[in-house]
Structures are given as C-alpha cells and as structure tokens.
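In the current project phase, the collection of sequences with tokenised folds has grown. A representative record is quoted in full directly below:
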Amino acid sequence: MSDPTEVTTWQHFIDGGWEEPAGGEYFDSTDPATRRRLYRAARGTAADIDRAVTAAQNAFEDPRWRDLSQTRRGHLLRRLGDLIAENADELALMESRDNGKLLREMRGQLATLPEYYHYYAGLADKIHGSTIPTSDRRVLNYTAREPLGVVGAITPWNSPLTLTTSKLAPALCAGNTVVIKPSEYTSATGLRLAELASEAGFPPGVVNVVTGFGAEAGQALVDHRGLAKISFTGSTATGSRIAAATASRFVGTTLELGGKSPNIVFDDADVANAAMGVIAGVFAAAGQTCIAGSRVFAHRSVYDQLLERVCERAESIRIGDPLDETTELGPLAFEAQRDKVADYVDLGRSEGARVLTGGSATDGGLGGYFYEPTVLVDVDNSMRVVREEIFGPVVAVMPFDTEEEAVRLANDTEYGLAAGVWTTNLARAHRVAGRLDAGTVWVNTYRAMSPMSPRQGFKSSGVGVEHGTETIREYTRVKSVWINTSEEPVADPFTMRS
C-alpha cells in the first residue's frame, strides 16, 4: 500500500507504458477531506489523445489481440478481476482519498468489483451470431458479431472504478480496445487499473488512459476520427453535447446521464424500512450518485412518521474523515461541488422550501468540503430544487394522496434513471413499477445492482444499456454473411427463366 504522505506524479498510460504529457504540464489533485495535495497528474492535450487512439488502433489490428480467441480474452478478464481483488485495499484507499468516499464503502465495492470482470470473462466466448433460414435452401446465411474498434470511455469522479469497469469490462469482452479519460478530480485509480490490465497480460495499446481536463483531453477524445464509439457517464448537459458532436460522424454512443429519482412510500409500507431506504438512497456517498433518490413522495397518512424517522437519522449521521471506520458521511468531492450544493439549498429557501434539518456547509473538523445531510419540505415539483439534479446530500419530501397522483408526480421530470417503491401490496408493486418512467425500479430496497442486471436511463437520463448481456450489443456490430452452396453455374440475371 502506498505511503499516504507521499505525493506521486502520474503520467499517461499509453501503449503499455508510462508517457509524459506532450505539453509537459501537470495538475494537482487534492484530498477533499483535508484539502491536502495528493498527487500530480499529466495534463492531457489533443496530441496525447492522438497518441493513445493511435496506439489503440494499432493494438486492435495487432494479431496478439485481433487473433486472440474469445476464450483467451475471457482468461485475461478473469486475471484482471483477480488482480483487482489482490490489490483491493490499495485501490480502496486511493479512491477514498481521491474523492472522499467512505473507505468502508470502498472496501465493500472492491469486494464485488472483481465479479464484473469475472462475469464478462465468462461471457466472452458466448458472443455469437445466428444461422438464418432463407427462401433458397442452396444459400447459407449467417450472422457474426464483431468488435467495433477503438472505444473512448469518459468517466466521472463520483465512482471512478465502478463506472470505468462498467465500460471497460464489456468493451474488452467484445474484443475492442479502449482509451479512458477519467475525471480530472479522480485520475489515480483509472491509471492504476490500466497498470493492472497490463500486468494481467492485455497486449500494449489495448487499455490506455489519458488524464486531463474535459475541455482539453475530453473534447479531443470526443472529436477524434479514430473512435468507433464513445461511452460517457456524467451530466445530461455534457452528454447532449457529446451526442451532437458524434452524430454527424455516425459514431455510436452510450450515455449514462443525470437523474432526479423518486422514492415513493405508500400507506401500507413498513415505514421504518422505507426511512432507511430514503437515507440510503440519498445520503449514501454524500448524495453524489446519479441514482440518488432525491425526491421522496410519502402518502399523507405516513408522511409525518416518515419525516420524523428520516430527520432523526439524518441528524445522527456522523460526518468526518472518510478513512475512519466510524464515519458515516464524507466530504463532497471538491470545493465547487460543495458550493453547488449550498447554492441549491439557498435557492430552495428562496423558492419557499423549509429546511427541517441540515442546510449548512461544514469543514468536518478537517478543513474539507463537507455538507450536512439536509431535508427539505414545503416543496413541489415546480421548484428548481426539486426538478434539477443537486448531486449532494439533499432530499425533498412531499406528500401525496392517491396512487395515481404518486405516479404522476414521480414521472413529472425530464429524468428517468431510477425509482423506488415501498409497499407490502404485491399487486401495487408490479402495477406501479410498470408505470414509472425509469430504467431501474427498486421495490422495498434501493441502490441494489449487479453486473448481470442491465441498466438504462429513460428520457434525459441517457441512451444505451450498461451491464448484463444486453450491453454486448453496445460494443459489437452485426455482420450478415451469404454463401451460395450450390455448384451449379450462376444464372445470367438478364435471361428470363420459366
């Protein structure tokens, strides 16, 4: 495990090795809990992106990767998953210090992260086409699924390892090569992951990482003519710009974007369980998740009871050092994000919202970017604080009277990433789940996920599928092959046949 006091300098990882930035510049990353400098990372430019994409293109055509059997690709993925497990403590500490996520939460993520690589390792040699019956028995028609080429992966700062994995594992499973541009706030674990991929035996150039800022390295990656696909996780506004930039080149995109997910508590719900679901849905990871259940709709008969339980637990959440095992809420990932959350709460107040608990920034006793768990009431769906993604530990709680009203309010949003339903009525659970405009619906739980279960955003929450077998279609193209099996001469097409 690395020395926590050491300031490391990270270079780009290109073509199987470390490469200095073309412009010779670096930028600093700081610990959001303490504001202390953590490391320096290479400041990528278009020249660095071009080097990485060229390396990925060459690797895609290299027989060491191109001619590798699908089973052997699976072996490499399995080995990468094993190496992640072997280095789990190091990776967990790196990410916790980089973005402020609780160390114990990161250890939990690292315990399951290898399963994603193991899952796609098993899937690698199950990617196949079909034989198609035709009207002419002498003609054989079959399909094959082929890799796309070079995939650009742009990943966010809130869960770098997990969200990079959701792109990298299926892309490699399908036989593509990858250029990753991590967030400038959380570069270290992506670079370490690329190093582990090399150690696992992936040929040089198959996995590349260029660090830097979105306007420089990120935009250069989006604009590069050598890409076959872009996979992006981040804000809806940035996703929209990426879609517009790539559409004219017919480059495929997978976009996992913003959310303003509803958590609906019906009158027959177990209120104690629902309250814990609300807490987990919006205060876990300091609310910095796209699936955060930041809009809570509670039936009027249980509204007060639910609020009392949520506020009581919110007020007892222990804020502090994310490396401390007893801490329950860490910092926001960087200063601008903390300020954004504070500005939204102030905006909510100006719109007429009432803060029941929380509502203030704090340094957590460490000088960092912390914000109190915050509960807003006296709100409605017309307010910006309810309609716009805050990405922090802030929840708005609203009452409803009927099932029809709950569904209407839940769907009254531009987003459609996730939703929660709390009820003991099985018929209602299925009925409401079917009517919610959300790609993931949890019933009597929240934030459950698996590499086997597909995830898709509806409406402004994204395009394309991540996880599960369906995501392989995102990283492959289908080819139809027609073979004439007859040995008879080919007929003259201009001669009439009886």
Remarks:
- Residues 103-123 form the longest helix (21 residues).
